[in-house]
Write a structure and sequence with these properties.
Blueprint: H1 2-19, H2 22-25, H3 33-45, H4 55-66, H5 68-78, H6 81-84, H7 86-92, H8 104-115, H9 119-122, E1 125-126, E2 131-132, E3 136-145, E4 148-157, H10 161-182, H11 191-205, H12 208-221, E5 228-229, E6 233-234, E7 242-246, E8 251-252, H13 256-261, H14 266-284, E9 286-288, E10 296-298, E11 304-306, E12 312-314, H15 317-332, H16 335-344, H17 354-368, H18 378-390, H19 398-417, H20 423-438, H21 441-482, H22 488-522
Parallel strand pairs: 5-11
Antiparallel strand pairs: 1-3, 2-3, 3-4, 4-7, 6-7, 8-10, 9-12, 10-11
Helix pairs in contact: 1-4, 1-10, 1-22, 5-7, 10-11, 14-19, 14-20, 15-16, 15-20, 16-17, 17-18, 18-19
Length: 523
């Protein structure tokens, strides 16, 4: 029955997309047969008003009608140009996550339910919301304790958002499965895995305890870093549905005139921003993955304060070494080494030729060296690199895509502060220091230390592994004597799966028939 309702919700989403002209705005090049017919039908169904708007405006209208879940879907797909294409990703990135506020009574109910204490006991004042997005809204408040009175920001989850998101998620999975079945070319992009990643990231974003933990972790990592910090968390007033944090009095980093009037050095701010992001990425392997200009403030001391850490990114040691060696290889014009790094990391299948791949990398690197450093975009370099790797069957790496997307945004903010900003010069101290520590002689010491640690852990697990090996040997011996058998539970599960498959087919036929009737009625 869930599949039936998922089909109905998908029909509604398709109808809204068609009426708002979103489908008509998509290119029809290469479409044939039913796909081309569907595109033409959607174009005919588009409102006249929508035909005069550009695609970004059409997307905004459609998403507004479809609700918060589709806002999150659009924002997520904006980080995956490998899936939707660079042009559509750019349009999706313009979606504004602004929703109507919900009532003070609902906000108070969420707080009591989450923390278990009355609002009056938690806050000396609790004011009306000043901003609302798809998942939450923010209230200014004050806390009075032995240390005095301090202003705080209280982020409260939107009522019913989890139920609505999980309901719409069924439709997203349905589309992903259909894409994998009907389009073999889409399987390389792993649409079901994309839907699974959306589910996981949004689950995390809707649990404010995890956002508070991310703020706390980044605060510890950056405690001694110059010019960058995040708000302090009030853990006593934080739960699954609310997070209370330090109120930030500062100037939005996009307000250049106000920054200049306050006496801040814009060139220095751009340098601090880039160096902080690279430091978090390379040194810590943990970075704020939503560092757009709306989430960055500059306080009176000239320190950049980053807020809203619902989305974060992590890179393991392998990915950090990969990134550093890629950047270092391009700087030194060692394209063979850049190619080898891809193979060593397992990102490019071994059946490809390293020399041919190095030739493709050279096609990216050589034009760059003819330009002045201030015109070379590090983010564009990574974008071109990922485009080339597609030719060599490099599988989608979500963590690297998120890194690239964040780098595009951070670099854009830095260029906003200083249009002639030299990314490479600003990055050199951080990247050079990390390379010296991790890719030189120090790397050997670190690898030996990590290897010894792994050996010790393996020795500790040896008794457990021996018991498992003995059990597996006994089971294999029994299988050899008596053959492979299904227990009744397995047979029953297979029967139920087959029944579901048949039922889904029948439901699909009914949905198609209902869709045809609905469209005919509308026409």
């Amino acid at each position: 029955m869930n599949s039936f309702f998922a089909y109905l919700r998908l029909m509604r989403a398709g109808w809204v997309m068609a009426r708002e002209g979103v489908i008509a705005s998509l290119p029809a090049d290469g479409l044939q047969g039913p796909a081309l017919a569907a595109h033409r039908l959607a174009t005919a169904l588009a409102r006249r008003k929508s035909q005069q708007a550009d695609r970004a405006e059409r997307l905004a209208r459609a998403v507004e009608r479809l609700g918060p879940s589709y806002v999150k879907l659009g924002q997520f797909l904006a980080t995956r140009p490998d899936v939707v294409g660079r042009s559509l990703a750019r349009d999706l990135s313009l979606l504004q996550d602004r929703m109507d506020t919900f009532s003070m009574d609902a906000a108070r109910a969420r707080i009591v339910e989450s923390v278990g204490r009355p609002v009056e006991e938690l806050y000396s004042t609790f004011d009306a919301p000043i901003a609302a997005a798809s998942i939450a809204q923010v209230h200014p408040a004050e806390v009075s304790d032995d240390a005095g009175t301090r202003k705080v920001a209280v982020k409260v989850v939107r009522p019913g958002i989890r139920k609505r998101f999980y309901r719409d998620l069924d439709s997203f999975y349905l589309v992903a499965h259909m894409a994998e079945r009907l389009s073999p070319a889409s399987r390389r992009l792993r649409p079901v895995d994309v839907a699974r990643t959306l589910e996981q990231t949004t689950k995390i974003e809707m649990d404010f305890r995890l956002e508070a933990a991310a703020l706390s972790e980044l605060a510890e990592n950056t405690r001694d870093d110059p010019g960058f910090r995040v708000p302090a968390v009030d853990w006593e007033r934080t739960g699954r549905d609310i997070v209370t944090m330090e109120w930030i009095d500062g100037i939005k980093i996009a307000d250049l005139e106000a920054l200049k009037a306050a006496g801040h050095d814009l060139d220095h701010l751009a340098e601090i921003l880039i160096q902080s992001f690279l430091r978090h990425t390379l040194r810590d392997g943990f970075f704020h993955a939503d560092m757009h200009q709306g989430n960055l403030f500059v306080d009176a001391s000239g320190t950049i304060v980053a807020v809203d850490m619902g989305i974060v990114g992590r890179l393991g040691k392998k990915e950090r070494r990969f990134l550093a060696e890629i950047l270092y290889g391009f700087i030194r014009r060692d394209y063979r080494r850049v190619a080898e790094v891809h193979f060593e990391a397992g990102y490019v299948p071994a059946h490809h030729d390293v020399a041919s791949f190095a030739q493709a990398i050279r096609a990216i690197g050589e034009p760059i060296h003819g330009q002045s450093a201030e015109t070379i975009s590090m983010a564009k370099l990574l974008t071109l690199l990922f485009e080339v790797t597609e030719l060599f069957d490099m599988q989608t790496r979500p963590e690297l895509i998120m890194l690239q997307k964040t780098m595009v945004v951070v670099e854009g903010v830095a260029r906003l502060l200083n249009p002639h900003f030299n990314m490479w010069k600003a990055s050199e101290p951080v990247v050079g220091d990390w390379i010296a520590r991790n890719l030189g002689p120090a790397r050997v010491v670190t690898d030996i230390k990590d290897g010894l640690g792994a050996a010790v852990r393996l020795a500790e697990q040896a008794p457990v592994l021996a018991v498992r090996a003995e059990r597996l040997s006994q089971e294999l011996d029994e299988m050899a004597r008596e053959g492979l058998r299904f227990d009744p539970g397995t047979a029953e599960a297979i029967g139920k799966a087959e029944a579901r498959h048949s039922r889904s087919g029948r439901i699909a036929l009914w949905v198609i028939a209902l869709t045809a009737i609905y469209i005919a009625f509308q026409l």
